[in-house]
From TrEMBL:
All copies of domain Major facilitator superfamily (MFS) profile, residue ranges: 20-457
Organism: Bombiscardovia apis
Record field: transmembrane: 21-42, 54-74, 86-109, 115-136, 143-167, 173-190, 202-221, 227-244, 264-286, 292-313, 325-346, 352-372, 393-414, 434-452
Locations listed in the record: Cell membrane
Keywords recorded for this protein, A-Z: Membrane, Transmembrane, Transmembrane helix, Transport
Keyword Transmembrane: yes
Stated name of the protein: MFS transporter
Membrane topology type: Multi-pass membrane protein
Length: 464
């Protein structure tokens, strides 16, 4: 294929991709808002079906599925046609939704339906990301990554609202929301590129082994136990051996020794470490320090999500203007200010704390675009799918570990004995000290950005 033919093919796929991405984004939104909606009402569902003690499975098991399929779909995008994967995902999303609606009287059917929903919805997200980094030019890539991140937070806000509204008459109708995806199938069939890897065998064994490893990570942080830890170590060793000795592993030695990409993974891990803990700590503060109702807490958190959505929408143009490195520096500073401000002013009013939460959520949100932009640039185009998948896995794993650390810190009574700047002892001091731990993680992220700045600065933004 001549260079001109390659340019022509890129432009054809670029034009089709820009038509398909909005439809993919809507499908992703419809599926993702279910996460927050069901996280809000899972106890109500368990109670209504006589399974109160098992209700949390409706939240935890789909979360485990999500952690696995994020990696799996991203990897498969390097081998399988995006169009075929998209159709599979939309069909699975609709099938899971209908199964949950018509099987709403049985707890286990509801649980299976939620897992199918999650698995189907994530296909749209993974395809969106991979098509963005493969088929768009450099400036468009940053913009669309920012929009994707914004839609994630928009889905969180809408999901919380939908969960509270629909449960006022019957929670089973939540299942029908993603069925609206059926209207976007014609657009997706027409415009999603039908391109697969030619002449390259899929490493099914290696991918399956890595999927088991990813699943065990998620399981360990949801249901910790010694046998899970042993299985996790064994699967990790088996996967390392497969990379070293296997025939044509899907992650080659060159991939895992890519210094720039591995550096970006480290930065991502630190930046997102306390991502899952940012919201739960405000429930603790609102209920135990200020004694305010959950509705008020939810309203304040909705404001935080709206800020995150707006920041995500504009993060692409910001990265194109400031460059990846400067954007990451600003992000880390915003996180430090937000966390440290929350620690210092923990007793000065819940609305002031909401302001500081808006600051650090802005920092976390704006981080997404430059990290994924840099990660995709560090790899060859034909490996962008598995690169995106592993970034997704690391982001979720880091946040899960951070959530476990947060839980340990919050359960440690010694942290309540006192804190800096005269914060009263007790729950105020305890939550303030947790915020200081979050600020320390953000400071470490800032240090890493300066130390590893060569891996973040690149042609796509910083040299334009």
């Amino acid at each position: 294929m001549t260079e001109q033919q390659q340019v022509d093919d890129f432009e054809i796929n670029r034009a089709k991709t820009k038509k398909a991405l909005p439809a993919l984004l809507v499908v992703f939104l419809l599926g993702t808002l279910m996460l927050q909606a069901f996280n809000l009402v899972f106890q109500n569902i368990g109670d209504s079906l006589g399974m109160s003690s098992s209700a949390s499975l409706i939240s935890t098991l789909p979360g485990i599925v999500l952690g696995v399929v994020c990696m799996l779909y991203g990897t498969l995008c390097d081998f399988v046609s995006p169009k075929r994967m998209t159709l599979f995902g939309v069909i699975a999303l609709i099938a899971g939704s209908l199964l949950g609606f018509f099987g709403a009287s049985n707890f286990w059917i509801v649980l299976v339906a939620r897992m199918i929903q999650v698995a189907g919805a994530q296909v749209a997200g993974s395809i969106f990301l991979v098509m963005t980094v493969k088929y768009l030019n450099e400036r468009e890539k940053a913009v669309y990554l920012g929009v994707f991140n914004a839609v994630y937070y928009l889905a969180a806000a809408v999901g919380v609202f939908a969960g509270g509204f629909i449960t006022s008459f019957d929670w089973k109708y939540l299942f029908l929301v993603p069925v609206l995806s059926v209207f976007f199938i014609p657009v997706l069939i027409k415009n999603t590129p039908d391109i697969g890897a030619k002449g390259e065998k899929i490493d099914f064994f290696g991918i399956a082994l890595f999927a088991v490893f990813a699943a065990l990570i998620a399981i360990y942080f949801s249901f910790p136990g010694p046998w899970v830890l042993v299985a996790l170590v064994v699967s990790a060793l088996a996967f390392v051996l497969w990379i070293a000795k296997g025939k044509n592993p899907f992650l080659s030695k060159k991939f895992v020794t890519n210094k720039a990409y591995m550096t970006i993974i480290l930065i991502l891990f630190v930046f997102y470490f306390f991502n899952f803990a940012c919201v739960p700590i405000y429930n603790v503060i609102g209920e135990q320090i200020y004694d305010i109702p959950l509705t008020t807490i939810s309203l304040c958190l909705t404001i935080v999500y709206v800020v995150a959505t707006l920041v995500g929408m504009f993060s692409g143009p910001v990265v194109n203007w400031m460059g990846r490195l400067n954007t990451m520096i600003v992000a880390a500073i915003l996180m430090i200010v937000g966390f440290a401000g929350s620690a210092i002013f923990i007793s000065k009013g819940f609305y002031l704390l909401t302001f500081f939460s808006c600051i650090f959520i802005a920092g976390i949100t704006i981080t997404y675009t430059p990290i994924y932009d840099a990660g995709s640039e560090a790899l060859p185009v034909e490996e962008n799918g598995r690169g995106i998948g592993i970034l997704d896995l690391v982001m979720n794993t880091s946040a899960s570990i951070g959530m476990a650390v947060y839980s340990v810190l919050l359960a440690n009574p010694s942290l309540g004995k006192g804190s800096l700047f005269g914060v009263p002892s007790g729950i105020e001091a305890q939550t303030a000290n947790v915020f200081w731990a979050m600020a320390a993680a953000a400071l470490l992220a800032l240090i890493l950005v300066f130390v590893c700045r060569k891996s973040l600065a690149g042609k796509s933004t910083d040299e334009q």
